[in-house]
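To whoever is on call:

I kicked off a structure prediction for a single chain this morning and the downstream step that reads the tokens threw a length-mismatch warning. I double-checked the sequence; it's 190 residues and nothing unusual in it as far as I can see. Pasting both halves so you can look.
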Amino acid sequence: MASIPLLSPPTTATNAAASHQASSASLSPTAKFLPHRRLTRLHVSSPTNNNPRTTAATLASPTEKIFFDGGAHYGDLVANLLLGFTLLWLPLTLAAVSRAMYLRYRFTNLRVTVISGLTGQDRSDFAYSVIKDVQVVPRLIGEWGDVIITLKDGTKVDLRSVPKFREIAKYCLAMAQKPLVLKETGPKGF
């Protein structure tokens, strides 16, 4: 007794061969197109010098230039990993590892952005116009440090283990149009 496939329609050898020839003919580059089919070409990109859709809003918006974009300083992670062999320092080591993996700072000419979280969706932005004060706290021998930004509403934003922290703090003060006098305390811990 011959088996009959239950889920697929019955095909004959001639139907299968004809459908195979039709599909291979449509895939070949030398295949003839049917006369009732129109040929269209897709233009993926347009020339950059000819943009008729520029509006006043796009012309007035300033371009954002990045001054610094990065995470916590690698020295913070290394120092905490070395001290993490002691059981007492282990929580601080885990905090340094999470800072190294899930925290990014971005300083542009328009705003300060802190991106954190497992997926990077926790984001805090603030403009330089809301900055009231900037303080720095060097760590270890001054290779990296913390930048504490006080906003006009009294909120303190603590940016931990920032590389080039003195340059970044001066940049924040300059962009906020404040005097370039940093309030710096002596080196503290890791």
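Update from on-call: the warning came from a stale cache, not from the record. Cleared it. Sanity check on the structure: The CA atoms of residues 46 and 52 lie 11 Å apart.
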